[in-house]
Design brief:
By secondary structure, the chain is α/β, with parallel strands linked by helices. The chain has one domain: Maf protein (Alpha-Beta Complex), CATH 3.90.950.10. Helices cover about 25% and strands about 20% of the residues. The protein is built from six helices and eight strands, in the order E-H-E-H-E-E-H-E-E-H-E-H-H-E. Strands 1, 2, 3, 4, 5, 6, 7 and 8 form an eight-stranded mixed sheet that branches. Helix 3 crosses helix 4. The longest helix has 17 residues. It is elongated and about 55 Å long. About 40% of the residues are buried.
């Protein structure tokens, strides 16, 4: 638990550069320690809602990393796209990516991101989800194929990235933009506060120390955050 003058280490259980960039954007120093869990390899369980599914995977990722650490708050996140009750994770290949895109063309779908924060010392966890509605403009198979050929859709839920070239396909969103990117910052801040962490940092009015890159022994900061690859599987 944090106190008034110190903040616990914050660890991101993901190799996603998008999520790391968002944490850096709001001044949260973070160590990157990717989960060893297989991305997109987990199927939904019978009767499981998309929200429960995203929450379960986010928590599993955070616990996978927290179990290897002695201290710190570990953040796990998982994003899914839901259309007609079907959960779309990351496509397995270019064929599936194109099929995902065509199923979304000219329609409205939901993007759900589950976020979990686990305290490594105690195992305590806080989990929640955020959902945003996204409407895609109409586009044909040729345009979908051209987007897939860029390679961008292959590592993204629903086979598109709103923060990249996929923005050319998005007509409208209703809700939190960062949920679609993959890490709802307002929700994350609320979860961190439950552990006594002030997202604004413990610094004084003349300079917030949390805007400085996180460092660990033997590591050099990588563009504002630290990369911790120890213990990866």
């Amino acid at each position: 638990m944090a106190n008034e003058t110190t903040q616990p280490d914050i660890i991101l259980a993901s190799a996603s550069p998008r999520r790391a960039a968002l944490l850096r954007q709001v001044g949260l120093p973070v160590r990157i320690h990717p989960s060893g869990l297989d991305e997109g390899g987990e199927e939904t369980r019978e009767g499981e809602t998309p929200e429960a599914y995203a929450s379960r995977l986010a928590l599993a990722k955070a616990r996978d990393v927290a179990d290897r650490l002695k201290r710190g708050l570990v953040i796990g996140a998982d994003t899914v796209v839901v259309c007609d009750g079907r959960v779309l994770g990351k496509p397995r290949d270019r064929v599936e990516a194109r099929a995902f895109l065509l199923s979304l063309a000219g329609r409205t779908h939901r993007v759900i991101t589950g976020v979990a924060v686990v305290e490594a010392e105690t195992g305590r966890a806080e989990v929640d989800t955020s959902a945003t509605s996204v409407r895609m403009r109409a586009f044909d198979a040729e345009e979908a194929a051209r987007y897939v050929a860029s390679g961008e859709p292959l590592d993204k839920a629903g086979a598109y990235g709103i923060q990249g070239r996929g923005a050319l396909l998005v007509e409208e969103i209703q809700g939190d933009y960062f949920t679609v990117v993959g890490l709802p910052l307002v929700l994350l801040a609320a979860l961190l506060r439950r552990f006594g962490v002030d997202p604004w940092g413990p610094g004084d009015a003349e300079g917030d120390s949390r805007t400085r890159p996180a460092r660990t022994v033997g590591e050099a900061p990588v563009d504002g955050f630290s990369l911790d690859t120890s213990g990866q599987v």
